[in-house]
Design the sequence.
């Protein structure tokens, strides 16, 4: 696998990855001014993000009837002694592993470490860092599925925000070819757009051995940031299908609490305080209480979304990430991982990728009790503690002298708590990054262009900014060549979109 595609590599297949027409890639009309609001009108920004989440969940509520076959099949498969496999890539991979953990914590009756298995592109190591271009390879999905022991009679539930991720499609087609339980394929773009523009998606839509559930909910609050509404809707759809005999009533009760009744304005001082900590040179350590996988997910997804240093490996010379995870009740890295996943990690010992995906690579991400002091010693910077935990029927947020309790009504399950926390943390971290200038308008200008899909996204955002702010409309190929040439010189944390924008403007200067 080539780590960095060349200009000609990308242009040869660019038509397969030009996805700007898809809902999940388009700018949301309600958040065009998100960057300005994050800096100057924080209550407006919080209200806008809550409204977009509410809209997405309202759409899902109208489609809950589509989930009946998924719910009944999950129950049938577990009762007859076969297994459930949950698969995704990036954000949907993390939600697949989160649902595996929640299933064993009581969400799914009869779930064990042996019969509910969540996996993602790149294996458990990719929870922390995406393995560059792994998602572009459907054959890797087949290999992971086979190595996990998938057999006839098992059920694969595959989720992909865009409906076009090659890795997830590869896993789905492999499961369908097994000839047993037809897999489910959940996605968030309209069928007509996928069928017209994406050949690999059309192949899935036309495959009668794959059961499709379309949960299209429109654009993301931050353009292309599918860790937000799309992955929330997918996690809710699969999670409520696992957990509730009265799915519609349980979902309505949770949604009413989470986005209709709950006041999200408490986020404002926490957003201001965390952004201020970074601006003063401090770093943040998150202590997640019982919400380990949800907090890990949000904090690690900040790196690819905003081109921040990823969680650093222990005893390395890598730049320290702005924030990190701390699992206090763990005496070693291996114990911290077991506490996080509620099982031992699943490495991929794959030859030339082993240094990224193997057991030794996973163990170098150390969240154990020594993490705060190790980071303090290595960086010389204060490590500010951000605690999120469950206290007396509420979810408590605590950072510095700030403290807020979110009352949890009776009947709200751990799934509901984690879904709410996911949305709140998504809003919180997105607006922290907005205050730090990590996006323009509502465009991911700091997107990490490390696979074909993200290269296309960076090209499109450059084109959009050129047209929106400078009245220029160069060709796609021109910007693609400029961006791919600039990649080699991009410094850590430098926005490839803005660097490419500056180069194109310089070339067009009179």
Sequence:
């Amino acid at each position: 696998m080539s780590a960095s595609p060349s200009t000609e590599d990308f242009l040869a297949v660019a038509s397969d990855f030009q996805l700007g027409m898809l809902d999940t890639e388009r700018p949301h009309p309600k958040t065009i001014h998100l960057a300005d609001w994050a800096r100057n009108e924080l209550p407006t920004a919080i209200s806008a993000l809550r409204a977009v989440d509410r809209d997405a969940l309202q759409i899902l509520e109208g489609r809950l009837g589509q989930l009946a076959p998924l719910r009944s099949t999950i129950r049938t498969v577990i009762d007859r002694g076969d297994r459930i496999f949950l698969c995704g890539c990036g954000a949907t991979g993390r939600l697949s592993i989160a649902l595996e953990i929640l299933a064993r914590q009581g969400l799914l009756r009869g779930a064990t470490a042996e019969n509910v298995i969540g996996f993602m592109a790149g294996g458990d190591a990719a929870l922390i860092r995406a393995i560059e271009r792994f998602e572009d390879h459907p054959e890797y999905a087949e290999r992971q599925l086979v190595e996990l022991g998938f057999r006839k009679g098992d059920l694969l539930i595959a989720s992909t925000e865009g409906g076009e991720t090659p890795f997830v499609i590869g896993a789905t087609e492999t499961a369908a070819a097994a000839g047993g339980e037809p897999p489910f394929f959940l996605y968030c773009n309209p069928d007509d757009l996928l069928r017209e523009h994406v050949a690999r998606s059309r192949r899935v839509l036309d495959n009668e051995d794959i059961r499709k559930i379309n949960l299209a909910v429109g654009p993301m609050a931050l353009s292309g940031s599918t860790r937000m509404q799309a992955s929330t809707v997918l996690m809710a759809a699969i999670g409520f299908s696992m957990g509730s005999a009265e799915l519609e009533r349980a979902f309505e009760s949770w949604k009413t609490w989470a986005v209709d009744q709950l006041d999200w304005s408490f986020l404002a001082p926490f957003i201001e305080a965390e952004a201020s900590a970074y601006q003063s040179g401090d770093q943040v350590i998150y202590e997640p209480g019982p919400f380990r996988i949800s907090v890990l997910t949000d904090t690690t997804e900040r790196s690819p979304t905003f081109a921040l240093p990823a969680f650093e490996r222990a005893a390395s010379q890598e730049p320290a990430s702005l924030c990190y995870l701390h699992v206090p009740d763990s005496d070693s890295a291996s114990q911290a991982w077991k506490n996080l996943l509620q099982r031992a990690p699943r490495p991929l010992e794959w030859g030339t990728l082993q240094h990224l995906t193997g057991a030794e690579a996973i163990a170098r991400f150390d969240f154990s009790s020594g993490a705060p002091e190790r980071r303090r010693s290595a960086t010389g910077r204060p490590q500010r503690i951000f605690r999120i935990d469950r206290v007396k029927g509420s979810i408590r947020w605590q950072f510095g002298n700030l403290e807020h309790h979110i009352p949890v009504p009776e009947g709200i399950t751990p799934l509901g708590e984690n879904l709410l926390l996911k949305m709140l943390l998504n809003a919180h971290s997105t607006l922290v990054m907005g205050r730090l200038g990590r996006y323009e308008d509502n465009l991911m200008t700091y997107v990490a262009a490390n696979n074909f899909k993200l290269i296309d996204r960076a090209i499109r955002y450059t084109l959009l900014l050129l047209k929106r702010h400078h009245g220029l409309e160069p060709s796609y190929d021109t910007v693609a060549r400029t961006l791919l040439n600039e990649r080699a010189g991009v410094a850590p944390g430098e926005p490839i979109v803005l660097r490419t924008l500056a180069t194109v403007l310089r070339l067009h200067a009179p």
Notes: The two ends are 42 Å apart (CA to CA). The mean pLDDT is 94.
